[in-house]
């Protein structure tokens, strides 16, 4: 029996070694701007991204326009893809934010994990991570992968486990990749991360085999059961080359300064880190690389199909910043993050985007967006300092959009539901439990004119009811729910 076990372990180790990959250096940064052709096509995006890849990057890039770019900030000249992720800021004590220095550009890893790997199809685009996440309701740290099952391998869990924040100290043994799924606090970074922090992001590599993109830019793809490896879920049987972003931020430069790190999307936790990709390899090249770049060294120099350019040339490639964003200082911003994105600590889901300036209008959903499900959103941030505080949170229903063809009557139902949030002694959320719903009030409105689109924003929360607001060991949340 014992010997069988040993053989299994040995085979597993061998097959792990056999996975080839290459590490594509993008030593240049093609730009830092509020641009995101996937989530905000044709207009400025909510938050600032650090962008690598094609010099043809614009607010409305497609594969075709990226390929027309005359340069790339990455090493392989046949690759005009675009790679982008939120930038990291340091918020000083006075509220001003300063862009943290990105060290050495980006490394875009292409892993050849799994069998029968295919290159990305034409016009392929995808997102990894979720900008609005502010908590991690699964065990911390990860249990050993061999023990993952059930909820551990759900797509939402795998998506959050695909984020890594690696504390760098080159004098010590390196931390494992994807070992920590949140940003360490500044005290910890000041003490331990003398070479900065490395953001890591694994993209899904299981594909439905037909859609190059989807409305949310993620439903056409899924994670394999072990994030980077393992089984693809049913319906996502095509194994793509696995894309992984790495960027290093010089957080240690702020060692003796008062303040805190925050991602450009208003996320100080790291749980809302995410990244975007638009495929832009010259026709057929990526598949050739997948088939031929099987050297285990990971060096692009060891693959004969790549044409390489110097680090200097990578550094020369930048995209033009659009006129409307030219005056925005993304390096130093007074009184908050660029675009005054509010900082949300969670653990509640941070959608929709909030701003620190009261007069700043939230973007209005448009008729072209698919009708979204009524969502929950909590009006104020929680502080995670203690597990014995309970607080009542303000109700802020999410606007919902629907396409209307004719006169309609709609009913808005406010319900009250108790959500128990269990936390460990450090205030880290472990799980939630929801109680029954009580209807608190209803309102109806009839539209008498024909409209093409209606944006519903329930404005008056129901009457406040007195509640016990101190419950030891858990918090009570109140949610608005619109029908
Ligand atoms: C690319 O084009 C821009 C103008 O569109 C130009 O400023 C830049 O020098 C060009 N870069 C290269 C590497 O040719
Ligand atoms: C890979 O392709 C071969 C040949 O088509 C097939 O026999 C094998 O089952 C495939 N493997 C997977 C994991 O799909
Ligand atoms: C910072 O993080 C460390 C490690 O997780 C923790 O021990 C410490 O209490 C935290 N400090 C603050 C001020 O939150």
Overview of this structure, please?
It is a single chain. The chain has 2 domains: 9-333 and 461-478, no CATH class; 403-454, no CATH class. It contains 6 helices and 22 strands. It has helices at residues 2-17, 63-68, 155-161, 186-192, 285-292, 311-316, and strands at 21-26, 31-33, 49-53, 82-86, 88-92, 97-99, 102-111, 125-129, 163-167, 197-202, 206-207, 221-222, 238-239, 242-249, 259-263, 274-278, 332-333, 400-403, 409-423, 429-446, 453-456, 474-477. The strands form 6 sheets. The protein has a 5-stranded antiparallel β-sheet with strand order 1-7-14-10-9. The longest helix is centred in the first third of the chain and has 16 residues, at 2-17. Mean pLDDT is 80; it is low at 1-17, 361-409 and 447-483.
Compact summary:
This protein has 483 residues and is an alpha+beta fold. Helices cover 10% and strands 26% of the residues. Strand 5 (88-92) and strand 6 (97-99) form a beta hairpin.
Index terms:
signal, DUF1996 domain-containing protein, DUF1996, five-stranded antiparallel β-sheet, disordered C terminus, 6 helices, 2 domains, 26% strand, 483 residues, binds 2-acetamido-2-deoxy-beta-D-glucopyranose, alpha+beta
List the helices and strands and how they pair.
Elements: H1 2-17, E1 21-26, E2 31-33, E3 49-53, H2 63-68, E4 82-86, E5 88-92, E6 97-99, E7 102-111, E8 125-129, H3 155-161, E9 163-167, H4 186-192, E10 197-202, E11 206-207, E12 221-222, E13 238-239, E14 242-249, E15 259-263, E16 274-278, H5 285-292, H6 311-316, E17 332-333, E18 400-403, E19 409-423, E20 429-446, E21 453-456, E22 474-477
Antiparallel strand pairs: 1-7, 2-3, 3-4, 4-16, 5-6, 5-15, 6-17, 7-14, 8-16, 9-10, 10-14, 11-12, 11-13, 18-21, 19-20, 19-22
């Amino acid at each position: 029996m014992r010997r069988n076990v040993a053989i299994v372990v040995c085979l597993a180790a061998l097959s792990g070694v056999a996975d080839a990959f290459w590490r594509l250096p993008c030593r240049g940064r093609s730009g830092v701007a509020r641009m995101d052709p996937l989530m905000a096509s044709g207009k400025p995006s909510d938050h600032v991204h650090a962008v690598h890849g094609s010099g043809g990057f614009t607010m409305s890039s497609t594969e075709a326009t990226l390929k027309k770019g005359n340069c790339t900030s990455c090493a392989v000249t046949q690759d005009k893809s675009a790679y982008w992720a939120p930038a990291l800021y340091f918020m000083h004590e006075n509220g001003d934010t300063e862009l943290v220095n990105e060290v050495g550009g980006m490394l875009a890893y292409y892993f050849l994990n799994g069998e029968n790997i295919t290159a990305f199809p034409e016009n392929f685009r995808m997102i990894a991570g979720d900008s609005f996440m502010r908590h991690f309701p699964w065990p911390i740290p990860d249990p050993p992968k061999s023990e993952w099952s059930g909820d551990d391998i759900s797509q939402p869990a795998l998506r959050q486990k695909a984020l890594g924040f690696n504390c760098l100290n080159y004098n010590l043994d390196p931390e494992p990749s994807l070992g920590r799924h949140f940003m360490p606090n500044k005290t910890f970074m000041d003490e331990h991360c003398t070479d900065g922090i490395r953001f890591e992001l694994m993209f899904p590599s299981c594909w439905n085999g037909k859609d190059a993109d989807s409305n949310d830019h993620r439903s056409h793809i899924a994670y394999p059961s072990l994030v980077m490896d393992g089984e693809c879920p049913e319906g996502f049987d095509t194994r793509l080359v696995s894309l992984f972003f790495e960027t290093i931020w010089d957080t240690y430069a702020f060692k003796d300064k008062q303040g805190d790190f925050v991602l450009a999307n208003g996320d100080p936790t790291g749980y809302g880190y995410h990244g975007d990709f638009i495929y832009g390899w010259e026709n057929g090249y990526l598949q050739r690389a997948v088939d031929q770049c099987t050297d285990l060294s990971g060096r692009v120099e060891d693959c004969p199909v790549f044409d390489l350019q110097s680090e200097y040339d990578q550094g020369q490639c930048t995209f033009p910043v659009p006129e409307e964003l030219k005056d925005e200082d993304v390096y130093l911003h007074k009184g908050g993050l660029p675009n005054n994105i509010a900082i949300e600590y969670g653990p509640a889901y941070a959608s929709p985007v909030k701003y620190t300036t009261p007069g700043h209008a939230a973007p209005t959903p448009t008729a072209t967006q698919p009708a979204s499900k009524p969502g929950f959103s909590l009006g104020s941030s929680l502080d995670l300092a203690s597990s014995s505080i309970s607080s009542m949170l303000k109700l802020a229903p999410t606007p919902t959009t629907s396409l209307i063809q004719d006169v309609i009557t709609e009913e808005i139902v406010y319900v009250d539901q108790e959500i128990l949030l269990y936390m460990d002694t450090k205030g880290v959320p472990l799980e939630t439990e929801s109680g029954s719903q009580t209807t608190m009030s209803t309102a109806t409105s009839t539209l008498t004119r024909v409209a093409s689109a209606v944006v519903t924003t329930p404005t008056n929360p129901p009457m406040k009811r007195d509640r016990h607001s101190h419950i030891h060991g858990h918090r009570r949340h109140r949610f608005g729910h619109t029908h």
